[in-house]
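Obj.: predict assembly geometry.
Materials: sequence records (below).
Method: joint structure prediction, all chains together.
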Amino acid sequence: MTNPVTLEVCIIGSDYILEDGKPVVRLWGKTSKGETVLLLDRKFRPYFYVEPKPGFEIIKALPEGQGWIVPEKVETVEKRLYGKPKSVIKFVLTSPSDVPKFKIGIERLESVKATYEYNIAYYKRYLIDKGIIPLNWILVSGEGQNSLEGGLVVELESIEHLPQTDYPKIRMLTFDTEVVEKDGERWVVVISFNSNYGFRRTLVLGYVEKKNVECFDDENSLLHRFIGVLKTEKFDILCGYNTDGFDFPLIVERANKYNIKLDIGFEGKEPVFVMKGSISSFSITGKIHIDLYNFVENIVSNTLATEVLSLDRVSRELVGEGKKRVEWVELKNSWERGEKERLVEYCEKDAELTLKLANVLVPQIFELSRVSGQIPFDTSRMSYSQLVEWLFIRKSYEVGELVPNRPGFEEIRVRQLTQSYQGGYVHTPKNGLHHDVALFDFRSLYPSIIIAHNISPETLNCGCCSTLEDRNVISKDKNKVPEETYYFCINHKGFIPEIIEGLLRKRTEIQQEIKTLENGSVKYKDLNNRQYAIKILANASYGYYGYPGSRWFSTICAKSITAWGRYYIKKVIDFAERDREVIYGDTDSLFVKMGSGESISFIEEVNKTLPEGLKLELRGIYKSCLFVLSKKGTAAKKRYALIDKEGNIIIRGFEKVRRDWSKIARDAQEKVLVSILMDADHKAAFEEVKNLIEKVGQGKIDLKDLVIYTQLTKPLESYEQLTPHVMAAKKAIAKGVKISEGSVIGYVITRGTGPLSERAEILELANNYDPDYYINNQIIPAALRVLSEFGYSEKDFIGEKQQSLAKFINRENKKEKKFLQLKYKI
DNA sequence: CCGCTACGGGG
DNA sequence: GGGTACGTAGCGG
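Observations (raw structure tokens):
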């Protein structure tokens, strides 16, 4: 039974299926009441363009009888490429998979010069051509009917775009998985769910009495229940942290072991891993699976103070709350002792934190979906360059431009090898510690330059301005790139400046509206996310010119932008240096020694000297800041730490703290930074490290603070290099410990005279540690990353005697290597 | 100094 | 629609 229906729908997802060889576009949407709707469109067909060689007639179809494809329609259309008119032939085909086949076939014809837009995914093509923007509202009419799964299914007849910008009610489910290694296998032992609609549940392998906890005797039934929850819960979005990379691959592996069907998609469809760039993404039909880690890594990390992108650190920064500080070894031990509550609690906390993080990040993903025009599943996994690319592709369709092709592998290589141009200007930092420093930066420097100087591939050295040159040299000079001979058109606005200008204009409008709203209200947050999404895309478009994989690649555009950028920042630095000390400057920002009182008038004076659209802004006033020069000396690396008047510390550019450093070394480095910034005294920091070294020397350190974690990435036998973690694993196995492929080995370097690998023991088998190794190879290098700035070196930490001893041992180690090679290889 | 191997997130 | 991630560092040889 079908009925004519008309309803308002917000689109949140899209895909297609084949029915009798013909594609059916599916749009997954929500109504304003929060109901789920599935819209079907059977009328849309895939297509691509062919440009014939001049004077050649293109055949209308490929020869039959060779298994080739007959198009549904062939027509000549007038498009433009980089602004220049171009006649192309549009081939409309039946199935999306016909496009690549037909393209390869027709490219073999002598009459074909080029092909275009052959690799735009069918469902994306549909959204672009219909002007449908995810998370925006449309008024749809068609024939509706209720599906077996409860939602309304509508055969689309017409679409109208609606202006409202609010969100529908989205039911968000988050989960987290805990795994324990036993008998060389990884077992799923706890799974916890949380949601924004009241559902909370934790599944445990074993018995735990607690609210919302369900207990299972075996992993098989736990996994069955996990699938049951995903099938019965009516959620729209499923969120996790590193679920593409960890939870789902693991759950699939375990489900396969028990032959459990993961029929959690629409109509029982099993999920698949699809490649999105370099990300293998877990895709569930009819649902949006978002892995927040992908989004954090690709997009959010840029603006975070933390260098470590763990759920703990990221949520500390974004939601003001982190995990309970606990060592994994302890959790594992209590689990094995049968005290299951601790791991359950830990897992529940993770699912809860993931939800809190999702509440902050999913609206940002939604807004980026609106700007890029891509569905949230894809948007959440895109890099900056991909977001920009889709924005440009959408705009191309709107203005009748052909989308330039992706470069091939060879072309990318050539671009990588040949492209080299000067980047932003770096004003060499005055290293060391400084007090009372103001940080200024340009508001959207590169986007503003693109607009102000009309930088676009088709406006470069345009014909219209070169004829103008003869009559009006000054006009041309006005838009000549500093220190270059290029210039950009001043008569016609370029394709890309046009897009960026639209973005910045929209952003300014939103910011005006935000000013009228109450700080922290729902509307305020939404608009703030919107202006932020716009800013992200505007800022990323410069990089897209210089990205070797870009469809709109232009080294000249990229280097013209940086040339103007250097010109303006130098101008500001010169201005500041007339009567002040500039401590550091990089691309679009500068640190100047001054108090908060002076900063306002400084900005006013500077901005008077800048052209329209370019503005310097005050970012903050800092009590102290620490600059560290890189070892390489001349190249001033962007490594610094700041502390503001409230005592908040921002650390930038120091190496990511990795698990292949022991906890004691990681802690030492952080302590040094904090100590210097807080007390403004490097001596205190130095003494602290010295005390720590003494403690290590006395053997007073708990072994678990000394563990270094390294993963086995292949079968043990196939390692040619006998690295410490490989050796530790081999020895452990020889003693009967089960270690599976892919597991992370936590080892300690124990006392002795042989090489490291000889003395590495897994934590469980280690009963002492080598103080010299931890002092010389862990704590000192970590601390010196900072302290070398203040003139400290290795000598300051250890006496001459110990140094020579260390050197002696090192020599001895080298002698023993050959012996060891023989011993273990054969 | 080069080449191999690993890091990231998750547990 | 699909390709190779990527940029950096420690340590062995």
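Conclusions so far: The radius of gyration of chain A is 31 Å.
To do: check interface contacts against the pulldown list.
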